Amino acid sequence: MSTAAFRELLGTQLPVIQAPMAGAQGSEMAIAVCNAGALGSLPCALLSPEAMRAELKKICEGTAQPYNVNFFAHRRPVFDEFRETAWRALLRRYFHELGLAEPAVRREGEREPFGEAQLEVLSQFRPRVVSFHFGLPEPALLEGVRKLGARVISSATTVDEARWLEQQGVDGIIAQGLEAGGHRGHFLSHDLTLQMGTFALLPQIVSAVRVPVIAAGGVVDARGVKAALDLGAAAVQSGTAYLLCPEARISAQHRQALTGPGARHTALTNLFTGRPARSIVNRIMSELGPLHASVPEFPLAGNTLAPLRAEGSRLGVSDFSPLWAGQNASVCQSVSAAEVTLALAAGAILD
Amino acid sequence: MSTAAFRELLGTQLPVIQAPMAGAQGSEMAIAVCNAGALGSLPCALLSPEAMRAELKKICEGTAQPYNVNFFAHRRPVFDEFRETAWRALLRRYFHELGLAEPAVRREGEREPFGEAQLEVLSQFRPRVVSFHFGLPEPALLEGVRKLGARVISSATTVDEARWLEQQGVDGIIAQGLEAGGHRGHFLSHDLTLQMGTFALLPQIVSAVRVPVIAAGGVVDARGVKAALDLGAAAVQSGTAYLLCPEARISAQHRQALTGPGARHTALTNLFTGRPARSIVNRIMSELGPLHASVPEFPLAGNTLAPLRAEGSRLGVSDFSPLWAGQNASVCQSVSAAEVTLALAAGAILD
């Protein structure tokens, strides 16, 4: 699969997608990347339909290039009183320490799965690419996206997931290796031993499907892009490489963690949202263990944690906040999103 | 770091090391690989000094090319009665099921760390390369190896371990990514969240040290070799790719597992030896969970498990035996070790 196949598919000059990073970036990042010749992405998991519309409007004003709009495709969680109780018991000592009251119980999460409201906003913008994480939305919704003319791509973390996505007719598959920062995209099984490093996952998916495969997980520079293309990728998706850009919207604590020696130590944790995601190890991950069985279902875990995160931020500490990053975070640099894009693309010999 | 640096160091034509796989191969494999132009390895962790001498004699008769002799450099375990008791309680149901008596308690493990006896045998053969896993032996022993004229290489699973090895004066470092089959080589920390995929570990070690870096973990074919060299490796070490060769000495059950659909599902497990190692998931791993806190220290865990393994083998089942394999096991083929070697080397453009 050549990079030409990818460019034909997505309409961009360079075989690079800037990974959508909900909470860490918005339209500025997407615009900068699109204007540099790669595919910029707008993550919408944390946006209301109104906020999404405002961001998409900015993108259309800021660039004439194709862009990607990204959604989570999880199913709404079922509130479980016992897990919530266990979770509160685990967090109680931190509420005591910070002198905070526990928040009221909420039965809905902060992250919206893709639905009718989002489709309605998309119909006004007709983006070239729509990407999903955690599988795909229900068939009727997916069909709605296709009817807008969008190319659809989604993440696979196993060969089974890649084959399933191909059967649903996606136009491209993001092979998300274990090195990747943020949420694992797995959706057919929650068994983490099934998750593979990029060096194993990528060639196996390339062999298993016929659609273009986009490599994600540990790709942060030109040599990584070259290696990913050697392993059969048609393009790469890189997130961590962009985290230190001025266009990113991360906290001062997150930025500090990314530039410190701790950036080499990440772990998969479910503490922040209920789903395993890769973060630089911080206090709560060390103290409770990064993966805990008592954490409420995604994304409900974040509700009870929210006051601790807010107070931590106010105090300037990262004890309770996710520090999303991939395993190659330690090589990232504080340069513009355009520079990161061109540095990555230098690894691709365009055919 | 060019592959020429590696060839100068190790004296082989091709930038490929056949990974030493204790229990899975002996001199036949090493000879075949050496004669094909790469560096064949003799794993000695499970060999008595006498057996080691016999195998080395065969290698010297079978090839005039340089070869590698590999040892474990762990410290002898301290027997812990409480862990042994807990371990036996976990295994009891299997002894009942198979109608076997529990074996007598043994306070010594089956795997020998490198010591005076091994050094004495080496002095009669003066191999070009000696490699270690789990760190390095005590300084006096290491000095003894050097005095024989051997180049010394060892595995690093973190940047800290790579720097430590360089400080001890090793001639090359094997960057062992998380995809690799068999035992993880970590020795400075047992925290598994520190373990990285090859796509992250390899370039970080390449940037951190000045000695040649050998990529291991997920490298099973030419495209993998090309990708590893792109990421800065001077050579690759590949084990899983050789497991199905006629020169391998694996059980029929192991061979069957490697060619079945289950080969895609490996996990790190400490059940077989007490140290985390990657195996295809089998019955005992599924039932007890692959990583268990009650397992005796390496390599003592294997003692109590031994009768179950033996009876399982007799019955033709792999329920209690390790099925060592890397995450890319599913792409391996039943061809000769020479063919595997040349297929790997096709990914390297020799300079």
CATH architecture title of the largest domain in chain A:
Alpha-Beta Barrel
Mean model confidence by pLDDT of chain A: 95
Beta strand count of chain A: 11
Uncertain runs of chain A are none
Placed side by side, the strands forming the largest sheet of chain A appear as: 1-9-8-6-5-4-3-2
Q: CATH-wise, what's the superfamily of the largest domain in chain A?
A: Aldolase class I
Instruction: Encode the helix/strand succession of chain A as letters.
Output: HEHEHEHHEHEHEEHEHEHEEHHH
Radius of gyration of chain A: 19 Å
The biggest chain-chain interface is:
A-B, 40 and 40 residues
Oligomer: homodimer
- Proportion of residues in helical segments of chain A: 25-40%
Largest beta-sheet details of chain A: 8 strands, parallel
Q: How many separate domains of chain A?
A: 2
Distance between the termini of chain A: 11 Å
**CATH class of the largest domain in chain A, anyone?**
Alpha Beta
Number of helices of chain A: 13
Description:
The structure is a homodimer of 351-residue chains. Chain A is of the alpha/beta class and 351 residues long. Chain A has two domains: 1-74 and 111-240, Aldolase class I (TIM Barrel); 81-106 and 248-335, no CATH class. Helix content of chain A is 38%, strand content 13%. The first copy, chain A, is built from 13 helices and eleven strands. The first copy, chain A, has helices at 3-10, 27-35, 49-62, 81-98, 116-123, 139-147, 159-167, 198-208, 222-230, 252-259, 283-288, 301-315, 337-345; strands at 16-18, 40-43, 67-72, 129-133, 151-156, 172-176, 182-183, 213-216, 235-238, 266-269, 277-280. In chain A, the strands form two sheets. Chain A has an eight-stranded parallel sheet with strand order 1-9-8-6-5-4-3-2. In chain A, helix 2 runs parallel beside helix 3, helix 3 packs parallel to helix 5 (116-123) and helix 4 (81-98) runs parallel beside helix 12. Chain A is globular and about 55 Å long. The mean pLDDT of chain A is 95. At the A-B interface, helix 8, helix 9 and strand 10 of A face helix 8, helix 9 and strand 10 of B.
